[in-house]
Design brief:
It is built from four helices and twelve strands. The protein has a six-stranded mixed beta sheet, with no helix packed on it. A four-stranded mixed beta sheet has the order 5-4-10-11, with no helix packed on it. By secondary structure, the protein is an alpha/beta fold. The radius of gyration is 19 Å and the shape is globular. The chain has one domain.
């Protein structure tokens, strides 16, 4: 009777594992993501780097960003704020063997409609070759709106770093 329960548990676990997205990134891309995370320098408080990565017909699309902080307590309770940061673009360029395109998209008009923000997120986009593979990398100005906060901050300024950023896989 006990072994029957264990078998049912294993079957449920296998079915659950099949429904989870798999990490299909090549090793060079996983390594690059880890290394690029170190190029983010938060200005005021420490931050967590997040990313979205997917294969798109003939190239890899990679978006990286510094996660938002959620305010806990006080008048700003629940408010999610982006974190200010610097990014070392010169070090980033060392990963590319050639660059086809590089653009900076700035959207300072906060009244811009949400659809235009989704079609052209604010940030630095570089398209080129990395490890003989085509890569479109965007360093986003802030985390995508659908991404959960990476950290929490109490009204007294104490940072609680117990949250995880969801990475999207396709």
């Amino acid at each position: 009777m006990h072994s029957h329960l264990a078998v049912q548990h294993l079957i449920r676990q296998v079915e659950a594992d099949r429904s989870r997205p798999r990490d299909r990134k090549p090793g060079w891309l996983t390594e690059m993501i880890d290394e690029l995370a170190n190029l983010f320098e938060p200005i005021s408080i420490s931050g967590r780097v997040g990313f979205n990565c997917q294969w798109n017909n003939d190239h890899w699309d990679l978006q990286m960003y510094l996660g938002r902080v959620e305010m806990v307590g006080g008048v700003s309770d629940g408010l999610q704020k982006p974190l200010n940061f610097e990014f070392d673009v010169r070090m980033l360029m060392k990963y590319f063997t050639s660059v086809d395109r590089m653009t900076l998209t700035a959207i300072p008009d906060a009244s811009a409609d949400e659809e235009s923000l989704r079609s052209a997120p604010a940030g630095l986009m570089i398209s080129g070759l990395v490890a003989d593979q085509q890569l479109v990398l965007t360093i986003l100005e802030q985390a995508p709106m659908e991404t959960a906060a990476a950290m929490q901050m109490r009204s007294n300024g104490k940072v609680i770093a117990g949250l995880d950023i969801d990475s999207l896989w396709d």
